[in-house]
Amino acid sequence: MFGKRVKLFTLLGFQVNVDASWLILALLIVWSLGAGYFPFSYPGYSNATYWTMAAGGALGLFASIVVHEFAHAVVARRYGIPMKGITLFIFGGVAEMDQEPPNAKSEFRMAAAGPLVSIGVAALLYVVYRILLVGGGPGPLAGVVSYLSMINGILAVFNLIPAFPLDGGRMLRAYLWERRNDLRSATRTASAMGGGFGLLLIVLGVVQVVMGNFIGGMWWFLIGMFVRGASRLSYRQMEIRQALEGEPVSRFMRSDPVTVPPEISLYEMVNDYVYRFYHDVYPVVEGSHLVGCVGTRNLKQVPQSEWPIRRVEELVEPCTGGNTVRADTDAVEALAVMSRTGNSRLMVTEGDRLLGVIALKDLLGFLAVKLDLDAGEMEHPEVRRLAHR
Known about the structure:
Blueprint: E1 5-11, E2 14-19, H1 22-41, H2 47-78, E3 83-89, E4 92-97, H3 104-135, H4 139-159, H5 167-180, H6 183-210, H7 214-244, H8 266-277, E5 281-286, E6 289-295, H9 296-300, E7 324-325, H10 331-341, E8 345-350, E9 353-359, H11 360-373, H12 381-387
Parallel strand pairs: 2-3, 7-8
Antiparallel strand pairs: 1-2, 3-4, 5-6, 8-9
Helix pairs in contact: 1-2, 2-3, 2-4, 3-4, 3-5, 5-6, 6-7, 7-11, 11-12
């Protein structure tokens, strides 16, 4: 979903990131507020004042989205759901979870937390706005506070629409999950609602463009495309988790992985291993002992002229938790580690012994077969495409 992300800060143990696309949204918000909304709603001020109000409004919107997502993250942590962090991107923000909620109750409460907090923020800011008006506070400040009160209300109402993966869609899924006792069926229905809502936004966007509102219409169109795509992706991710849940890593690992001896030269490693097997990281094994790991990242730090005289053992690094798992680790957890670290291959270890290697390709190959064998389920061309890379 995301491109290049930059860490902003960590609060209450949650890392807040911003996607590069957020810059586009920030510039559009500042421009629309400074050149349109504030001059129209509060005439009589200088251009400098309007642009200052616009910057304050954009920062306030940023804070509002962070608070909304933090509400989700705090409730998720209460129910023991691992959170990768919070990422802001062009269509808002998302609290990233490594797994589905354990039950319908936790799902409903986690989803409801965001809109409830946004409603509370909107009400609080409205009270502040009224106090500023009565007390004769600065007009520009009152204007920014009024805007932020309104935008938090809009944020809450939009997210309460029962279209998965919006908060309202997750609340709908939780309700159906509780009634049907079937997460897959509940997710399918909520995702269909999300897809339909996304299609509606796309149609409304096209209508707006035809009527001459090109910028507004394009935003509706893009948001509709995002909601429609996100609803499908969320359903597929749920199916993948269910297909792998309870399966140990040992079922998928290769017990005869490619290993590199520590005594060979870097030149031999490149020609006999890197150019032959195309892996990014290789386990370094001496006898039955796992010495560590070495990869192409380490090789790039050494000039090629030194490759014939330098040894692999000089570049070996510990195989950390980011690229190792135990044989009894749940495959869902292994997939989460791959997603979090970007490693497509994990070493399966027991103490200082290398038992095997599990690759993303092997997991996806299993998923492609399992999902195709599930009668009546949707096709999964993306899984099959990745599995046959």
